[in-house]
Amino acid sequence: MPATRTLLLPLVRATLAGTSALALVAAAHAQEAQQEDTTSSGDSTALETLVVNGGSGGVITADGYVGISSATGAKVDTPFLETPQSISSVTEQQLRDRNPQTLLETLAYTPGTWVNAYGFDPRFDSFYVRGFDVTYTGVFRDNLRQPAAGSSLFKNEPYGLEGVSILRGPSSALYGATGAGGLYNLITKRATEEAVREVQIQVGTHDRYQGQFDFSGPVNETDPVYYRLTGLLRDSNTEQISVPDDRAYIAPAFTWKPDEDTKLTILGEYTRTKTGGTAANYNDFYYGGFGSVTDIFLGDPAFNDSIQNQGRIGYEFEHSVNEALTFRQNLRLSTLHIDAQYVYGYGPFIVDPLDPDNPYDDVLDPTRIGRMAGVFDERLTSMVVDNQLESNFATGIFDHTLLAGIDVAKLRYKALGGEAEITPIVLADPNFGAPIATPAFTSNDKQDQWQLGTYLQDQIRYEAWTLTVGGRYDWVWTDSSMTDLTTDTTTDVSQNDKAFSGRIGLTYETDFGLAPYASYSTAFSPNVGINGETNQPFKPTESTQQEIGVKYLLSDYNVLLTAALFNIDQENGVFWEVIGTKNRQVQRGKLRSRGLELEATTSLDNGLSLTAAYSYTNVKILEGAAGTVGNHVSSTPFHLASIWADYTMPEDSVAEGLGFGFGARYIGSSYGDDYNTLKNDARVLFDASVHYDFAAIDKKYEGLQLQVNATNLFDRRDITCTSNYCYRDQGRTVIGSLRYNW
Question: What is the pLDDT of residues 492-506, one digit of tens each?
Answer without folding.
Answer: 988 889 999 999 999
